[in-house]
Design a protein that fits this description.
- The complex is a heterodimer of chains A (about 120) and B (about 110).
- Chain A is mainly beta.
- Chain A is about 0% helix and about 55% strand.
- Chain A has strands at about 5, 10-15, 20-25, 30-40, 40-50, 55, 65-70, 75-80, 90-95, 105, 110-115.
- In chain A, strands 2, 4, 5, 6, 9, 10 and 11 form a seven-stranded mixed sheet that branches. A four-stranded antiparallel sheet of chain A has the order 1-3-8-7, with no helix packed on it.
- The radius of gyration of chain A is 13 Å and the shape is globular.
- The model of chain A has no long low-confidence stretch (mean pLDDT about 90).
- Chain B is an all-beta fold.
- Chain B has no helices and eleven strands.
- Chain B has strands at about 5, 10-15, 20-25, 30-40, 45-50, 55-60, 60-65, 70-75, 85-95, 100, 105-110.
- In chain B, the strands form two sheets. In chain B, strands 2, 4, 5, 9, 10 and 11 form a six-stranded mixed sheet that branches. In chain B, strands 1-3-8-7-6 form a five-stranded antiparallel sheet, with no helix packed on it.
- In chain B, strand 7 and strand 8 (about 70-75) form a beta hairpin.
- Classes of the chains: A mainly beta (about 120), B mainly beta (about 110).
- The interface of A and B includes residues 48, 93 and 110 of A.
């Protein structure tokens, strides 16, 4: 079975550029989560969607970050404009059923983002 | 503020020895506790989801117990192997918002 698929795996770009990270959740999962991993803060939840609707975006660092889920099989996390402090590994995870409260989250392989 | 604490922060264990570490979480509004294993350069992988006080779950040499009244869970690894080296994360979910509150993890290093 295909797991959570993230692209790209690595992204290196210059400060000020727009960055778009993509995620395809596991088919049938109705909750999707975006996380950021840094050395300083560990794993941080940025935003999560339930049935394609954003439920809580309080973890999104600032207005430069935005996330969308236009349908059940695709989500994007966009950073515009990007800054060096955005450099991190970004994970997408999905779960079933709603909110994943008593179901495990399945993580993608992550996107390693470096902003120069 | 909900806090999930894991201890110790890191642990060096000799191959073949057994070990355990702790996850502490708020004892009120408990809904579920998750354990994940996170190998370096990989993504977190779910080990257990525990919901009932007194729950004990097992997967091979790894097992976990849950005490929701006092707010702690133990993860045990029997006969540690080098492939057990990873960071072990726990995450708490309460009835208040159904979101995972993550601990900082216990980094386990198995010495051959």
């Amino acid at each position: 079975d295909a797991g959570v698929i993230q692209s790209p795996r690595h992204e290196v770009t210059e400060m000020g550029q727009e960055v778009t990270l993509r995620c395809k959740p596991i088919s049938g999962h109705n909750s999707l989560f975006w996380y950021r991993q840094t050395m300083m803060r560990g794993l941080e939840l940025l935003i999560y969607f339930n049935n394609n609707v954003p439920i809580d975006d309080s973890g999104m660092p600032e207005d430069r970050f935005s996330a969308k889920m236009p349908n059940a099989s695709f989500s994007t996390l966009k950073i515009q404009p990007s800054e060096p402090r955005d450099s991190a590994v970004y994970f997408c995870a999905s779960s079933y059923p709603q909110g994943g409260a008593d179901q495990p989250q399945h993580f993608g392989d992550g996107t390693r983002l470096s902003i120069l | 503020i909900l806090n999930v604490e894991q201890s110790p922060q890191s642990l060096h264990v000799q191959e073949g020895d057994s070990t355990n570490f702790t996850c502490s979480f708020p004892s009120s509004n408990f809904y579920a506790l998750h354990w994940y294993r996170w190998e370096t350069a990989k993504s977190p992988e779910a080990l257990f989801v525990m919901t009932l006080n007194g729950d004990e779950k097992k997967k091979g040499r790894i097992s976990a117990t849950l005490n929701t009244k006092e707010g702690y869970s133990y993860l045990y690894i029997k006969g540690s192997q080098p492939e057990d080296s990873a960071t072990y994360l726990c995450a708490f979910i309460g009835y208040s918002n159904y979101q995972l509150i993550w601990g900082a993890g216990t980094k386990l290093i198995i010495k051959p």
